[in-house]
Design brief:
Blueprint: H1 4-28, H2 40-76, H3 84-109, E1 112-113, E2 127-128, H4 132-151, H5 154-159, H6 164-192, H7 203-227, H8 230-236, H9 238-243
Helix pairs in contact: 1-2, 1-7, 2-3, 2-7, 3-4, 4-6, 6-7
Keywords: Membrane, Transmembrane, Transmembrane helix
Organism: Lophiostoma macrostomum CBS 122681
Family: Belongs to the SAT4 family.
């Protein structure tokens, strides 16, 4: 049967595909090539697709984290009285993610007036707010929420009445989220490299690595969200797996 988390997974997957397509268009216009080897027009096209990917990233991250947190509640705290720490932790994280990602989506969309100036830096009469706070806030929140999501089920996992070997396997499954945390950190590292003046920050070259680490982060989160059902699937289909 379908559960609420499944619908968030269904919504997240097309956005992951869209994010990859955005990256393809960035590469088409020279992402990964040093800035002094591309034309101004190519750079502006890169910035256009980079901003589009940045906007998509916010709802995508929210959907993936919702899918994980809703499964946490179902697995470990179906009622508030069963596991108060898990229930309050998951619900608080959901609320924080919704507020933060909604705010950040609009901030990313409109930090330049007119909006065209986000990618066309020669727009006459345009004005942009500093992009650095967006980068720092987004990176810090993503990393913080990833760590919270990673740590929330730790106590519950080791309280499960199952063999130690199975506990280790399940813990390793959750530990995939550690790689997502690393990807989030690397994304911050490469994003801060383009916070200098555009003429000297080599945006074109660093933009490729921002995209790669972004896709790694959301894809690994998606893998964790899908993998939470694996133990139940294996248990239900044990005979079929044995035959294979």
């Amino acid at each position: 049967m379908f559960e609420p988390a499944d619908y968030f997974i269904f919504l997240a997957f097309p956005l992951i595909v869209v994010e990859v397509v955005m990256g393809k268009y960035m590469v088409k216009w020279g992402a990964g090539v040093h800035q002094w080897q591309v034309t101004l027009g190519q750079l502006f096209n890169q910035l256009y697709w980079m901003n589009a990917a940045e906007v998509i990233y916010c709802p995508l991250s929210f959907l993936v984290k919702m899918a994980i947190l809703l499964q946490y509640i179902r697995l470990f705290a179906p009622r508030r009285q069963v596991h108060r720490l898990m229930w309050y932790g998951a619900v608080s994280t959901i609320i924080c993610c919704f507020v933060f990602y909604t705010m950040l989506t609009f901030w990313t969309l409109f930090y330049c007036q007119p909006r065209r100036m986000i990618w066309n830096k020669l727009t006459p009469g345009g004005k942009c707010h500093d992009h650095s706070p967006i980068v720092i806030a987004q990176g810090s929140f993503n990393m913080g929420s990833d760590i919270v999501i990673l740590l929330l089920p730790t106590k519950s996992l080791w309280e499960l009445q199952v063999p130690r070997g199975r506990k280790i396997v399940i813990t390793l499954l959750f530990a995939t989220g550690l790689v997502a945390c690393v990807a989030s950190v690397m994304r911050i590292v490469y994003t801060t490299k383009i916070e200098n003046i555009y003429t000297s920050a080599d945006v074109s070259h660093n933009g490729l690595f921002i995209g790669l680490w972004t896709e790694a982060e959301v894809a690994l989160g998606f893998v964790v969200a899908c993998s939470l059902c694996l133990p139940r699937l294996i248990q239900a289909k044990r005979k079929n797996f044995s035959r294979v």
